[in-house]
Structures are given as structure tokens and as C-alpha cells.
């Protein structure tokens, strides 16, 4: 019940353990096509360039920036936690000129602040974290397409902790590029990063003046393998694709709306129980992220000792704080297969015992 990875269902582990076959085997290629199709459903998009990158979520972040950003491009990045800051660092390494809009840790960004930063200027990319894993804040994305249009920018979204747990809806929100990870609400082992690029983003990619900074993450090349040509780029992680295929099947069998409702229901139960224990939740309810809850550590409590006791006595993992919340908060995950009544009840009972 930490900030990831989440528990992995037995059916996904079984898929991971199936015999390895070639990455050009017709059976594998069919599974790959089905995986892409299911990813489109979960992302809420018809984007042709939707695929799992052969690396973890941070590589998904790099994929978006190295493919869309060139030296001296202007990039506007919204930062309200660790991962907004990481986007800025990746953009700087692409030699972009980065403008930051900040919000206090534990709060959502004010779209008016972003609009002011964009006013009268032109940007290549406007980037925002949908679900900030370091703070447990869920950012409303609705205003950002209009802001991106006002400054001519592509809209790039970090959906690492939101995909499969809360609605993402790329097409409806007008998102040009998004990335996620398999180990959060998808309940698949870590190792792949689903990404999706709109047609507008693909046009920007195809008309670059300079080569993509990373050969390994170059979607001009990788897209030829995931498309009809099947041009060799690298050996796909066959068994991880098996696992993701099965994880996505489980999600769609449950139904996206039911899955979102389950995450919300279990989060509400957790929040109510934490409140009954007298624990403070720093993030306002209206922007609280159901798959990840930030809990302030009570005065005088050794937060590391509590986490160690939960792991030792109850075989239960929760996360510590990052950045401004380091040593001051716990992060409790309710993601995918871990968002159950059993998890909530175990966590509340274990916390009560440890704090006593």
C-alpha cells in the first residue's frame, strides 16, 4: 500500500510466467496489437501512436520530452511536487528554455497562474502532472487545453498514478501526449511505460529540425515496429507485454467506470478511518487523489519507526514523504488490485496499533 508498485493479481503473474516467444512471432504480434487497442480504451483515445515503452514510467516522461522538444524550444511546466520538478529537469536536459509555474506542496495548481505565465508568449509544450505521486493531489485538467491553445503549445500530461484509477480521457481533454507506468493503478509489475501521442504531436515529431536526442526512445523508429511494418528496433520485453495484456483485460472486464468507483469508494473509507484515528490529511478533499493519500505524521511520532513496524508486524508497506513532506507525512496507496476493503481495514488497524 505504498506509492507503487501495487499488488499484482495472480492472473497477471501467471501471464508473466508464460513461455517466452520471439518478438516477431505471429502470436506475440497479435497480443501486441490487442495490448495497444486496450491501452487506447484505458487512455480514452483513438491515437494510433499508443504503445508501451520498454522501460519504467520515468522513461515515459523522457519519451514525451525528447520526441517533442528541441534545443531552445520554450517549455511551460507546472510544478506542484517532485514529478513536476522532474519534468523541468528532463526538459532542461533537452536544452529547452523552461518557465515554471509553482503551487504550494499539497495544493493544486491555479489555472489562472498558468494562464498569466502563458499570456502573450509562445510555447512548444505546456506540461502538467495529473496525479502528483509525491503529494496525493489530483489536478483538474479541464482548463489546460484552452491555456495551451492560447500560447500555441502541445499539452503533455503525466498520468503515472492516474491511469486506470481515475478517468484520464485524452481525446476529450485535448491532451497531445501522455505517459504512465504499469506498476500503479494498472496492477502490473514495473517495467513498461504506456505512452500516447495525438496526431498533432506526431506532426511535430515528424517535422523536427534535429534528430531525437535519444535513439532508444525515438518514436519515429519505434513506431515502425508497432505499426504495420514491424521494422526491428529493439527486442520487445515479451513477458512484460504478456503481463500488461492480462492486466488490461482484467481492467476492461471490471469496466472502467466500476473501477473508478471502486477506487473512490475505498479511498473514502480510508479517509473516514484516518479521520477517526485523529490523523490529518493535508490535501483538501476536492483535489484529493483516490489512489494515493497523504497523511500528516502526528507530532512526536517517528514516522520511519511506524513504517518499519507495519512491515515487520503486519507485512504491510506504506510510503514515506518526499520533498517538502519528507519525514512529515506518509503516503498510502490504494491502487488497482490494492484498492480493496481488506487493504483499508488492515491499514487502519495496523496504524492504530502502531501509533498506540
Give descriptors for this structure:
single chain; 356 residues; alpha/beta; Aspartate Aminotransferase, domain 2; Aspartate Aminotransferase, domain 1; seven-stranded mixed sheet; three-stranded antiparallel sheet; 13 helices; 12 strands; 42% helix
Describe the secondary structure blueprint for this structure.
Layout: H1 10-16, H2 26-43, E1 49-53, H3 57-68, E2 74-79, H4 82-93, E3 97-102, H5 111-118, E4 125-129, E5 131-132, E6 137-138, H6 144-150, E7 154-158, H7 170-173, E8 177-179, E9 193-197, H8 199-206, H9 219-226, H10 238-254, H11 256-276, E10 292-296, H12 303-314, E11 319-320, E12 329-333, H13 341-355
Parallel strand pairs: 2-3, 2-4, 4-7, 7-8
Antiparallel strand pairs: 1-9, 5-6, 8-9, 10-12, 11-12
Produce a short descriptive summary.
This protein is α/β, with parallel strands linked by helices and 356 residues long. The protein is built from 13 helices and twelve strands.
Q: What can you tell me about this protein's structure?
A:
With 356 residues, the chain is of the alpha/beta class. It folds into two domains: 10-253, Aspartate Aminotransferase, domain 2 (3-Layer(aba) Sandwich), CATH 3.40.640; 256-355, Aspartate Aminotransferase, domain 1 (Alpha-Beta Complex). The protein has helices at residues 10-16, 26-43, 57-68, 82-93, 111-118, 144-150, 170-173, 199-206, 219-226, 238-254, 256-276, 303-314, 341-355, and strands at 49-53, 74-79, 97-102, 125-129, 131-132, 137-138, 154-158, 177-179, 193-197, 292-296, 319-320, 329-333. Strands 1-9-8-7-4-2-3 form a seven-stranded mixed β-sheet, sandwiched between helices. A hairpin with an 8-residue loop joins strand 11 (319-320) and strand 12 (329-333). The radius of gyration is 20 Å and the shape is globular. 48% of the residues are buried. The mean pLDDT is 97.
Amino acid at each position: 500500500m505504498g506509492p507503487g508498485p501495487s499488488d499484482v493479481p495472480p492472473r497477471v503473474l501467471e501471464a508473466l510466467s508464460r513461455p517466452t516467444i520471439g518478438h516477431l512471432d505471429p502470436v506475440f504480434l497479435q497480443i501486441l496489437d490487442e495490448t495497444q487497442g486496450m491501452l487506447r480504451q484505458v487512455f480514452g483515445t483513438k491515437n494510433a501512436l499508443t504503445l508501451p515503452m520498454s522501460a519504467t514510467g520515468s522513461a515515459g516522461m523522457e519519451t514525451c520530452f525528447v520526441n517533442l522538444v528541441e534545443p531552445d524550444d520554450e517549455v511551460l511546466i507546472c510544478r506542484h511536487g517532485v514529478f513536476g520538478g522532474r519534468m523541468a529537469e528532463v526538459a532542461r536536459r533537452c536544452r529547452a528554455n523552461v518557465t515554471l509555474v509553482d503551487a504550494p506542496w499539497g495544493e493544486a495548481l491555479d489555472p489562472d497562474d498558468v494562464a498569466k505565465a502563458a499570456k502573450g508568449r509562445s510555447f512548444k509544450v505546456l506540461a502538467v502532472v495529473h496525479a502528483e505521486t509525491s503529494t496525493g493531489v489530483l489536478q483538474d485538467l479541464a482548463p489546460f487545453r484552452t491555456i495551451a491553445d492560447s500560447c500555441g503549445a502541445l499539452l503533455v500530461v503525466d498520468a503515472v498514478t492516474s491511469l486506470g484509477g481515475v478517468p484520464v480521457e485524452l481525446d476529450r481533454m485535448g491532451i497531445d501526449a501522455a505517459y504512465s507506468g504499469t506498476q500503479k493503478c494498472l496492477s502490473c509489475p514495473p517495467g513498461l511505460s504506456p505512452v500516447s501521442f495525438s496526431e498533432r504531436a506526431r506532426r511535430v515529431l515528424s517535422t523536427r529540425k534535429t534528430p531525437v536526442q535519444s535513439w532508444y526512445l525515438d518514436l519515429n523508429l519505434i513506431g515502425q515496429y508497432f505499426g504495420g511494418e514491424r521494422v526491428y528496433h529493439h527486442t520487445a520485453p515479451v513477458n512484460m507485454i504478456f503481463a500488461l495484456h492480462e492486466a488490461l483485460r482484467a481492467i476492461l472486464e471490471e469496466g472502467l467506470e466500476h473501477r473508478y468507483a471502486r477506487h473512490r469508494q475505498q479511498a473514502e473509507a480510508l479517509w473516514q478511518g484516518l479521520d477517526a484515528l485523529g490523523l490529518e490529511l493535508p490535501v483538501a478533499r476536492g483535489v484529493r487523489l483516490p489512489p494515493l493519500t497523504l497523511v500528516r505524521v502526528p507530532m512526536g511520532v517517528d514516522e520511519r519507526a511506524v513504517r518499519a513496524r507495519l512491515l515487520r508486524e503486519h507485512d504491510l508497506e506504506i510510503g514515506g514523504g518526499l520533498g517538502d513532506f519528507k519525514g512529515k507525512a506518509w503516503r498510502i496507496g490504494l491502487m488497482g488490485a490494492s484498492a480493496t476493503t481488506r487493504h483499508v481495514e488492515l491499514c487502519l488497524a495496523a496504524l492504530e496499533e502502531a501509533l498506540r
